[in-house]
Amino acid sequence: MGKFTGPIIGIVLIILGMVAYGSLFTVDERQQAIVMQFGEPKRVIPEPGLAWKMPLIQNVQYYENRVLNLDPPAENILLSDQKRLIVDAFARYKITDPLLFFQTVRTENVARQRLGGIINGRLRQVLGNETLTAVLSDERIRILASIRENVDRETQRFGIALVDVRIRRADLPDETRESVYDRMRSEREREAAEFRAQGFEQSQRITSAADREATVIAAEATRESEILRGQGEGLRTEILNGAYGQDPDFFNFYRSMQAYTQALDSTSTFMVLSPDSEFFSFFNQTVNPNLP
């Protein structure tokens, strides 16, 4: 009996080792697992580490615990302004409920197909109510938020949480791109013409205001100069009247000399007058020899 004890113990240890090897399994930190028995889920292992299962009758189904990328095919979408747009979107998602994920889609390939269909469907739904101008402007932030909210609401029933969805590219089809560019160019040219017209109008207003101000300043200067001229003429007349009152003969002589100076200023001046004219009265006077 004793001679069989060693081999028996060895066999038992081997069997126990095989059972232990078949019962233990490791869950990587990048994974989460479901223990299956005859095709039915029995237990979810959400955390990494060493776990156990019943050998032979149970197996393990692993799922990713990382954020996954999805790049669905580009979609040709008709916008609300009847413009067509080729939209290339991508999404990032994570399996948050492995049991629900297994019960609804089972495999990641099926999940990717379902998720791609949902994303393209929501793109058509949301963008179908938007114009091309809105999609190409800052409004796209609001549009993407609406798409993300709609997609996340649908993917939750698969045990999937949508992390993000973005539009990588949005291109016009070749047959409509040139016409849209021409229309955009025409709109920009119209806006530029409006800006130029507004600038010209403002320039005219500024010029008119400056002209009015210049006219007012010139009129004011003319008025002041006329006042000063009148004051000067009045002062001159007053001085001349005073001189006339003091010595009438000298005043008449002085005025005659001024008249001679003005009349005979040019060498080409010809005057036809009688020698006895009063104008030449001072020329005809005899000089008193007794005067010094």
Question: Notable features of this structure?
Answer:
292 residues, alpha+beta, Tetrahydropterin Synthase, Chain A, four-stranded antiparallel sheet, three-stranded antiparallel sheet, 9 strands, 20% strand, rod-shaped, HflC, Band_7
How would you characterize the overall build of this protein?
There is one protein chain. With 292 residues, this protein is an alpha+beta fold. Among the domains are: 11-64, no CATH class; 68-175, Tetrahydropterin Synthase, Chain A (2-Layer Sandwich). The chain contains seven helices and nine strands; from the N terminus they run αββββββββααααβαα. The protein has helices at 2-23, 98-104, 108-127, 132-135, 140-155, 174-246, 248-263; strands spanning 24-27, 31-37, 40-45, 49-52, 58-64, 68-70, 75-78, 84-95, 160-171. Strands 6, 7, 8 and 9 form a four-stranded antiparallel β-sheet that branches. A hairpin with a 2-residue loop joins strand 2 (31-37) and strand 3 (40-45). Helix 3 packs across helix 5. The protein is rod-shaped, with a radius of gyration of 55 Å. The termini are far apart. The model has no long low-confidence stretch (mean pLDDT 82). Its main location: membrane. Keywords: Hydrolase, Membrane, Protease, Transmembrane, Transmembrane helix.
